[in-house]
Amino acid sequence: MLTADLDDILDDVFERVTSSRIFKNRDVLLPDYLPNKLPHREEQIRKVASVLAQALKGYKPNNLFIYGLTGTGKTAVVKLVVKKLSEKAVEKGVKLKITFINTKRDDTPYRVLARMLEDIGIRVPPTGVATAELYSRFKKFLDKKGTLMILVLDEIDYHVKKYGDDLLYKLTRINEELQRSKVSLVGITNDVNFTSWLDPRVKSSLGEEELVFPPYTAEQLRDILKDRAEMAFVEGVLGEGVIELCAALAARENGDARKALDLLRISGEIAERSGSSKVTVEHVRRAWEQMEKDRVVEIVKSLPLHSKLILYSILLLTKGGKTTYTGEVYRKYKELTAELGIETLTLRRVGDLISELDMLGLISTEVVSRGRRGLTRVISLESDPEAIRKGLLVDPTVAEVAG
Ligand SMILES: Nc1ncnc2c1ncn2[C@@H]1O[C@H](COP(=O)(O)OP(=O)(O)OP(=O)(O)O)[C@@H](O)[C@H]1O
Ligand SMILES: [Mg+2]
Questions:
Q1: Which residue of 159, 220, 344, 375 sits 20 to 30 Å from the alpha carbon of 38, by its own alpha carbon?
Q2: pLDDT at site 370
Q3: What residue spans define the domains of the chain?
Q4: 168 CA from centroid of ligand 2 (Å)
């Protein structure tokens, strides 16, 4: 490409984006933005606030366990309540320390303890201290301060699945060892099976109070989107039915507000990029397709190697919209493992992995009779082949057989 062309192209793109009459403030649609109002969460706000408000009287709030599917407002509600609570505590001159840790980001026991120490003003080197030592330092310094601490552990399942519930067990017992301080725990997760990872003692202690966040309905998502859209978009650019369609599509996906907001933002971005002066339902449809493809790429990327090889076999065998069946997939898969010089799973195991791919919605399978030759499964691709290919080729091993 000639440099002049490139300049022209870039000028055009920069011009379109900077002269956008679509967004007034796109950032309010980003997942990390914390709005001041959370429609349809009054009940949950009330409950979290009433549990934690004990702290304003100097009592240790009960531990609180919060569960709800992804995008149901758990993090937003707790962050909002905790923010107001610490303002109130300052106003009333109550000693209160609130620490918010996302254990997906800070997952190791070391990181969690280091964050707790940092929050009470104690610096910790990034590595090199035994976690037992960090734990006793934390107790010592917290007691010196003589304060109440509310410790929020968000996405707590990430920590527990990797490192077990030892730290959580200690933290639920910590008050027995503190003289002048108290710690209350708030645990948040979107994993239905999370409590099965916990020792019954930890489970009952963490769950002194429990709160469930239900998925949003399409109507509720519409209210949420309307509020945000007012802040995010230039007045009048949202075409008819845009908010309604975003709400309806996200409601189908487990009432996920994050998805609804992403969809609205991406629709706006597509409109902006195409130089349109309005966001239309057509832009929403394109945004949805785009998100669906991105989702497929992510799922495929996270599959284990043998599932990827099976999926790659299916991809090859279903070119042009054809169907295939288990035996054919197994032959292709065996060729690939032989080429790579790695072990080959049994036919039975491959059958199980094919069922998993079906459950993930990447392929669809149907059992049909082949007369005397018994039953087989007819397999077809269910997701966008390009998205599947893209996800697969990120893996260097698959890329090797793909040539
Ligand atoms: N009632 C609401 N009003 C306005 N915005 C909301 C509401 N509920 C959720 N949101 C927004 O939706 C997005 C997702 O919400 P949040 O992060 O609280 O979900 P979550 O339940 O913590 O999900 P996950 O389990 O995936 O962490 C955020 O941008 C949040 O601001
Ligand atoms: Mg969250």
A1: 159
A2: 82
A3: 42-213, 216-299, 303-402
A4: 19
